[in-house]
Structure formats: structure tokens, C-alpha cells
Amino acid sequence: MGSKGLKFVAIEAGGTASRKPVDKGFFQLSKKYTRDFVAGPGQEPFPKWGTSVICEEANSIYTFPYKNRTEGRSPDVETLDGMRIVESFETRGGGMHNCLTGCIVKCSNIVHDANGEYKTSGLEFETLTMLGSNCAIASWEDVADLDRLCDDIGIDTIETGAAVAVYMDAGGMEFGDAEGTKRLLREVAEGTEIGRAIGNGAATVGRLKNHHRVASVKGQAIPAWDPRPLKAAGVTYCTSAMGADHTAGLIVDPGQAPEEFARASQESQILNAVVDSSGFCQFLMPNIEEIAEFYAHFYGESVNRETVADMGWQCLEDEWEFNRRAGFGPEDDKMPACMAEDAIGDEVKFVWDVPDEVVAATYTRFDPRDELFTARPS
Fold first, then answer.
1. CB neighbours (10 Å) of residue 370?
2. Residue from 357, 356, 365, 360 nearest 315 by CA
3. 297 occurs within a structural domain
4. CATH number of the domain that 316 lies in?
5. What is the DSSP string of 234-262?
6. CA-CA distance, 60 to 77, in Å (whole number)?
7. What is the pTM of this model?
8. pLDDT, tens digit, for every residue of 22-35?
9. Which residues pair with residue 350 across a beta bridge?
């Protein structure tokens, strides 16, 4: 689609009525799930204040990358942490809202500037990390400006932050140059040579600058969650059809046993495929057992958890087959060399050292265990 200049496909639904649940119990189940979520997880700092408030936690486990991932912690975490955004609500306005009508999570923030004027919305952890810490930009205020620019231009903040960091690391500009980064993003809109490279992502900038440290898999930049301390997440990055996609199956468990890496990644990818395909938000944190119950009420027939998990596995197989036909192979399921060479951490040093055979094991389905059906998205 992209090579043909096709931006999107619009389908006019016309007056088609939405499908109604067969079993009225569907509505009772929805109400109960809502009550339980609002009274439980909905009261926690995340998701109550959105993803931006987990910067300190990520920094503590060396997954708040700094200066193009040469370090796992940032000295500027306090001025980047989303609680500074929350604190600004009292004097500037803004606040939390649901970016989709009816959403009970309400994890999206509305950010105002010092004059109380709207600046941006949805300033997330990944953006604060990749356009902030990873570029050594110290202030959430500057990151908010960059987020607004990315929104206006139409580029992804994770990929853009990675691309800018590669450019800085290659000597294109100084780390921490917030104003220079804003000018650089405007060049994306202007279509200059470096602007086009930044707009095309980290891998393109790496090729243009002939730089060795480019953290991407299958051409997609690695997000904030670092695969060196979070190795099961790294297995997901290697095997996801999209490349380094944390939404495909994130596992935040830095102490996980090596023999669990492939299974944990596979189970998380199955769960996330089910969640996405069913129209749930991952932040609602449903498990496969609960989703099966929703399906049973909707269709008015028995739907067991094994059937739903099988459909999730089929989604993964279809995506992998699409990639195979597009020319991807085992040689593409690789973490970049810099992840194995650049160690992060203090007392314990973390590098990517997961064997290829462990990564490859993800493609063969493990016998389902109870955890597959009861685990919730990270």
C-alpha cells in the first residue's frame, strides 16, 4: 500500500445496524467488568494517571534508555517523569480524559503550556523515553513540544525518537539539543534530505550516516522497554511480524529464568492477538478466560478458553506466513549487534545473549498451561 501511495481504505457502512448480543447476560457481564476495573486497577497510579508516570519504575530496571541506548538509566528521570505533568494540571489546566467515547480507562492526558493553552494530548511513557531520555533531552516540556510536532507532521514518536538519537550519536547534532531537535522535525515536513531520513526511521538514518549503533528489528526501532534486561520481550521483538513491537507481547520480568523466555513471549503474543482481535484495550487487562466468557454471551453458545487461544495462535501463524511470503526469514529474527555489544547496568551488566534456538522455539506452539488463560497483558 505504501509503495503505491495508498494512505488508507475507507469503508462506508451506511445504515448497517451493529450486531447485537444474543444473550442479554453480555450486558450484565460488561457492567460487572466495568465495576471491578474501576474499583481495582483503575485506582492505581497506572492507569489512573496514564503511562507517563512509570518512568521512575522503568529507570529502576534499566529500561529508560539514555543517549541512543548506551545507558539504561537517565539522570533526568525526575524532570521527565509524568508526575510532573500530573502536577501541572492544578495550575495550568488539562487533565486525564478518555480519548475514545465510553472508555473507562481514561489513561490519556491533556497537556497545557505555561499560559494554560492546549499543547498536546496523549504524552505517553514511550514518547518521554524515546524523544526525551534516549535523546538526552531533559525536560518533559520540550518533549511535549516534540510530541505536538510529531502529531502535526504525522510521524511516530517512538521511531522518531530512535531516529533522532541515531543522528545525534553519529555526530549530526549534540545530545540534549531540544531546540535543534524541533528544527530537525520541521525538516521532516519540509522534505529535506535529513528530514526525509528522520521521517523514514532509525534504520534509514543509520544507513545515511553509516552508523553502527541502530537498535531496530525488521526495520522497526526498539521501543523504550529494553531487551537486554527484559529478554522475553526481546524474543517478542525478534519474532513479532511487525519487528520490535512492544504491543505484540510485552513481558516486564527482568528476573525471568532463561528457559521461560520463548514460552513467555509466545503466550504473551497469543494473549495480545486475542485482545486486539476482540476489540479490547490492553489496558483493560482482560485474560483469555474472561474474553471467552464475553464471546459465549455474545453468540449465545458455549465458547471455551482453548478455542479462543487457538484463534490467537492462528492470528500469529497467519502474520508469520504473510512475512514469509514477503521475503522475511530466520535471518531477520535477529537483535542488532549493538544490543549484544553495548552493556548496560551497574553491578549487573545486561546484554542481549539469548541463543537463536530459543528465539526460534517461539514459532512452535507449546502445550497450553493454565497461565496462558489467566495471565493479563503487561
1. 9
2. 365
3. yes
4. 1.10.599.10
5. HHHHHHSTTSS-GGG-----TT--GGGHH
6. 10
7. 0.94
8. 999 999 999 999 99
9. 344
